[in-house]
Amino acid sequence: MGAYPDDHRTDADLLAAHADGDRSAFGELFRRHRTRLLRTARRRGASAEDADDTLQDAMISAYRAAGSFRHESAVSSWLHRITVNACTDVQRRKGPHTVPLSADHPPPVADRSGHIETAVVVRQAMMRLPAEQRAAVLAVDMHGYSVSDAAALLNVAEGTVKSRCSRGRARLAVLLRHLAPAAPG
């Protein structure tokens, strides 16, 4: 059975088939998760070019480690973790970004205090959500999991994920309403 658009094997089946020598199984697995994993790399601070390179590194790692997958989590979660680790490795290899300094042209310093304050307020609001709503919102809205993958990750029904996200978003809208720009008047 090859990797075709109508390949109905689960992610775990594809990973196992790859480990057993099916040359097309990993390609199908990669095709299914590429977009979400690229978004993960971009959210971790990678440029578009770096995100592609990071994802390539992550998929090589996953390709090689497929035989050691223990089925303790969803394959999508495993791929997500490998991608996050690859992002960390790339950032570590690059080291701190340095720009040559000159007395005539000091480096510009951006005031990021507003962003930091907003991030703190949002984090505090997230912590005020019930744990179930927070987990659903984080999985779907922050980490880019589909509702289906989030349901598998959280071990609940898809409808439960949808309702928890809806309630969590509504509560966040109330908690964060002071951050919304004022209406022109």
**Which architecture of the largest domain does the CATH hierarchy give at level 2?**
Orthogonal Bundle
CATH superfamily descriptor of the largest domain: RNA polymerase sigma factor, region 2, helix turn helix motif
Strand residue content: under 5%
In CATH, the topology of the largest domain is named Rna Polymerase Sigma Factor, Chain: A
Q: Which runs of at least 5 residues are low in confidence (pLDDT < 50)? A: none
Q: Sheet bearing the most strands, described?
A: none
Which structural category fits the helices and strands? mainly alpha
Q: What would CATH call the class of the largest domain?
A: Mainly Alpha
For the termini, the CA-CA separation is 63 Å
Please give a quick description of this structure.
The protein has 185 residues and is mainly alpha-helical. It has helices at 11-19, 25-43, 48-65, 75-94, 113-127, 131-142, 147-154, 158-175.
Architecture overview:
This protein has 185 residues and is mainly alpha-helical. The protein is built from 8 helices and no strands. It folds into 2 domains: 11-94, Rna Polymerase Sigma Factor, Chain: A (Orthogonal Bundle), CATH 1.10.1740.10; 113-179, Winged helix-like DNA-binding domain superfamily/Winged helix DNA-binding domain (Arc Repressor Mutant, subunit A). Helix 1 (11-19) packs across helix 2 (25-43) and helix 3 crosses helix 4 (75-94). The termini are far apart. The relative contact order is 0.09. The mean pLDDT is 81.
